[in-house]
Amino acid sequence: MKLLEVEGLDKHFGGLAAASEVDFHVGQGEIVGLIGPNGAGKTTVFNLVSGALLPDSGVVRFKGTGITGLKPHRIVRMGIARTFQSVKIFSKMSVFENVLLGHLFGRAKGSVISDPARGETEEILDFVGLAGLEGVRAMDLILANQKRLEVARALATHPDLLLLDEVMAGLTPTEVARAMELVKRIRERGVTVLMIEHVMKAIMSICDRIIVLHHGVKIAEGTPEEVVSNKTVIEIYLGE
């Protein structure tokens, strides 16, 4: 089943094409990578899918329903959550409060801070490896844990599709390995993943398919093996 479908997605900023006739899909249960040089349009695509930006043209469908132009909060409640290239957490709130807020926001109106809500928040924190840090202010976490917190808050909204924007950037090799395992466990949890990443070891190891953008244009798509051997991708992005 095609969980996410993007057709003819186009976005210009002045004379710059951040996305130009971009087409791709993400199947239910997949981990799909989105790669390309800086400025290729990867985060713009995330912003268009998540409702942070309006496309100039094109269609985005989620579970067969058009979501083009919907507000971000409506898209979240339909089942798409995301993280950000620069971590966006509620820095003065505790780790627990950050995730609890995600849980309540992802629910229908009238949600209250109940025992089940608190229990689920604790379960998600344990799942991402933040158990024991519930009372710590988010701003006091190390970078790796701030990124885990952002993932936890997104998971608390009950997504079917999770958009991860460079969740491994700036991490040590050990932290990258742990992040890779977390992404795989998120898929095992039943959540489909579309991820932007520059850590090629991670992309090649855990993705089922990879989409390559350059100057807003999709230049390649395929399995990791197909993409890594694509001459155009090698010349533009991977190098010899």
Features:
240 residues, globular, 26% strand, single chain, 4-stranded antiparallel beta sheet, alpha/beta, 6-stranded mixed beta sheet, 9 helices
Verbal overview:
By secondary structure, this protein is α/β, with parallel strands linked by helices. The chain has a domain at 88-157. It is 38% helix and 26% strand. The chain has a six-stranded mixed sheet, with helices on both faces. The termini are far apart. The mean pLDDT is 92.
Helices, strands, pairings?
Blueprint: E1 2-13, E2 16-27, E3 31-35, H1 42-50, E4 57-62, E5 65-66, H2 72-78, E6 80-82, H3 95-105, H4 115-128, H5 143-155, E7 161-165, H6 173-188, E8 192-196, H7 200-206, E9 209-214, E10 217-222, H8 224-228, H9 231-238
Parallel strand pairs: 3-8, 3-9, 6-7, 7-8
Antiparallel strand pairs: 1-2, 1-4, 4-5, 9-10
Helix pairs in contact: 3-4, 3-5, 4-5
